[in-house]
Specification:
The structure holds 2 protein chains of 2 kinds. Chain A is mainly β. Chain A contains no helices and 11 strands. In chain A, the strands form 2 sheets. In chain A, strands 2, 4, 5, 6, 9, 10 and 11 form a 7-stranded mixed β-sheet that branches. Chain A has a 4-stranded antiparallel β-sheet with strand order 1-3-8-7, with no helix packed on it. Classes of the chains: A mainly beta, B mainly beta.
Chain lengths: ~120, ~120
């Protein structure tokens, strides 16, 4: 059973460009969480999705950021018009259930660098 | 609301000596607590979890943690450090209340250095 997959592993964008980060959850997992890790900080929750639904986006910046988890295909975190402050590691995690008792399985992360 | 405080940003030990990484939490409900480890440029791996069963939790690679409700602590320990334990460790809380949906709240992390 393959783990959580994220691609690309490294992404370089210039200011103003768009960044698309992909996450394929573990087989059988229908719950996806996105977290952001800024330099020298712990991970911060961004958004929680189930198939075709955004359940909780309380950690997402109000502008330029969006997320989706379509019926088919990976979850996508999209950042429009990137700025230097968006440089961070973005981690995706998946879980078979949304219960707090279930661990979340993390992908290797996408490290975004904005020039 | 839930929060986690890791009391040490860096811990340095010698190989073969005990490891103690300290964590205090705040939660409105009976929380679930986790310790994750992150090796450089890698993803996060679960070391252990507490979910209201036994208060002493054993994890992988010889790590264990004890949930102490009276002290709101969940410190991570290992009797004897190995060089391969050098990494960053995160204490994490998940609030089972209805609006949290299982999302995790991370501490700031503790970087463990192991000297030969």
């Amino acid at each position: 059973n393959a783990g959580v997959m994220q691609n690309p592993r490294h992404l370089v964008r210039r200011r103003g460009q768009e960044a698309r980060l992909r996450c394929s959850p573990m087989k059988g997992h229908s719950h996806v969480y996105w977290y952001r890790q800024l330099p020298e900080e712990g991970l911060k929750f961004m958004v929680y999705l189930q198939k075709e639904n955004i359940i909780d986006e309380s950690g997402m910046p109000k502008e330029r950021f969006s997320a989706e988890f379509p019926k088919e295909g990976p979850s996508i975190l999209r950042i429009q018009q990137v700025v230097r402050g968006d440089s961070a590691a973005y981690f995706c995690a998946s879980s078979p259930l949304s219960s707090s008792y279930n661990e979340q399985f993390f992908g290797p992360g996408t490290r975004l660098t904005v020039l | 609301a839930q929060s986690v405080t890791q009391l040490d940003s860096h811990v340095s030990v010698s190989e073969g000596t005990p490891v103690l990484l300290r964590c205090n939490y705040s939660s409105s409900y009976s929380p679930s607590l986790f310790w994750y480890v992150q090796h450089p440029n890698k993803g996060l791996q679960l070391l252990l979890k507490y979910t209201s069963a036994a208060t002493l939790v054993k994890g992988i690679n010889g790590f264990e943690a004890e949930f102490k409700k009276s002290e709101t602590s969940f410190h991570l320990t290992k009797p004897s450090a190995h060089m391969s334990d050098a990494a960053e460790y995160f204490c994490v809380v998940s609030d089972p209340s209805g609006t949290s949906y299982g999302k995790l709240t991370f501490g700031q992390g503790t970087i463990l250095t192991v000297h030969p």
